[in-house]
């Protein structure tokens, strides 16, 4: 973690022995070990939280992209339906004109048949 070699660790032990004395050194080492353990757990927890947030952000981005794709699909579908719903002009005069044309052709055919 700190890249401490054997000689550096030995120097720290000698200084600690001189500062705390032989009676208090085991208690100080135990306390230092507890603090190092807490620091490691804290760092691990922070790393896990950061990883979780990154994963959540990726999921949010995927959901946002999917939502945009669905919205775009519905807009394209709506545009396609609107093109299919072209206004059909059903003018009643055109409808009766078409019927009278076909009925007059039927009448003229019937008249031609009676003349024969």
Structure description:
- By secondary structure, the chain is an all-alpha fold.
- The protein has a domain of 64 residues.
- It is built from two helices and no strands.
- It is rod-shaped, with a radius of gyration of 45 Å.
- The mean pLDDT is 82.
Task: Please sum up the structure shown.
With 116 residues, the protein is mainly alpha-helical. The chain has helices spanning 6-84, 92-115. The N and C termini lie far apart (116 Å).
- What portion of residues is helical? over 70%
Helix/sheet category: mainly alpha
Compute the separation of the termini in Å. 116 Å
Outline the low-pLDDT stretches.
none
| Shape verdict | rod-shaped
Radius of gyration using CA atoms only: 45 Å
Q: What attributes does this structure have?
A:
116 residues, 89% helix, mainly alpha
Write the layout of secondary structure elements.
Blueprint: H1 6-84, H2 92-115
């Amino acid at each position: 973690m700190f890249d401490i070699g054997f000689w550096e660790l030995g120097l720290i032990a000698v200084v600690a022995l001189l500062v705390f004395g032989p009676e208090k050194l085991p208690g100080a080492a135990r306390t230092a070990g507890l603090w190092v353990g807490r620091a490691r757990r804290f760092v691990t927890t922070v790393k896990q939280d950061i990883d979780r947030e990154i994963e959540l952000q990726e999921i949010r981005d995927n959901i946002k992209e999917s939502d945009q794709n669905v919205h775009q699909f519905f807009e394209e579908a709506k545009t396609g339906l609107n093109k299919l719903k072209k206004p059909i002009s059903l003018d009643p005069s055109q409808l009766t004109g078409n019927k009278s044309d076909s009925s007059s052709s039927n009448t003229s055919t019937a008249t031609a048949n009676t003349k024969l």
